[in-house]
Automatic annotation (TrEMBL):
This is Nitroreductase domain-containing protein. Signal peptide: none annotated. Its cofactor is FMN. Belongs to the nitroreductase family. It comes from Methanoliparum thermophilum.
Length: 221
């Protein structure tokens, strides 16, 4: 698959089939992740892959903790967004709502509950950042993008998730993850339920000229 096609066509999946993913496919995806560049080649990452009952147990604990604490979704992590980002967030919500309705979802906290249950994906990949590396966490983003693109190349679907990180201690305690490792992101991975209307949604991107400045260029070529 052409890399530009993968970048343009990859999208976030929010409904997965109850279909297992082979360990072989996961290993290939993780080999792409470990091929990512990192500052001074420190490679400050670990990847923990969870499926089956262990994954289901985490989901159960996360949902119970959310119900107990009442934590809700906040794109600004509890802080007020400025006008630009409020507009983008509101636009996302308004454009995904029709797909949620078509899917017959009537849970007002669906995004929260969906995120904490990994949208039903059979496998999750925990991206863990080693704080002892004293490295920049941008390295984790490079590895994450490799996961998303290589999975798409294999016909697998993904959803990168930040909301479960609110309950990082719960997840780390359950899996006995060492203290030095900080949870950077979780990727839900599996096969998309292509019949579910929610998976017809693809979020938009702002135009390039809104986010780009060219400095020092004399000609357009």
């Amino acid at each position: 698959m052409d890399v530009m096609d993968a970048i343009k066509n990859r999208k976030t999946t929010r409904a997965f089939l109850n279909k297992p993913v082979s360990k072989k496919d996961i290993i290939e995806v993780l080999n792409a992740a470990r091929s990512a560049p990192s500052g001074s080649n420190l490679q400050p990452w670990e990847f923990w892959v969870v499926t089956g009952k262990e994954k289901d147990d985490i989901v159960e604990k996360l949902l119970k903790e959310q119900e107990k604490t009442g934590i809700t979704y906040s794109p600004g992590k509890g802080r007020t967004l400025n006008e630009r980002y409020t507009e983008r967030s509101n636009s996302f919500v308004m454009k995904i709502l029709p797909y949620i309705k078509k899917a017959g979802i009537d849970d007002p906290n669906w995004i929260i509950h969906g995120s904490l249950s990994f949208y039903g994906a059979p496998v999750i990949i925990l991206l863990l950042f080693d704080e002892e590396s004293n490295s920049n966490e941008i390295n984790m983003g490079l590895a994450l993008q490799n996961i998303l693109l290589s999975a798409h190349n294999k016909g697998l679907s993904t959803c990168p998730l930040g909301l479960p990180l609110i309950f990082e201690d719960l997840i780390k305690n359950h899996l006995k993850i060492p203290k030095r490792l900080r949870l950077s992101n979780i990727v839900a991975i599996g096969y998309a339920d292509t019949e579910n209307p929610i998976n017809k949604f693809k979020s938009e991107r702002v135009p390039l000229d809104e986010i780009t400045k060219f400095i020092g260029f004399v000609e357009d070529f």
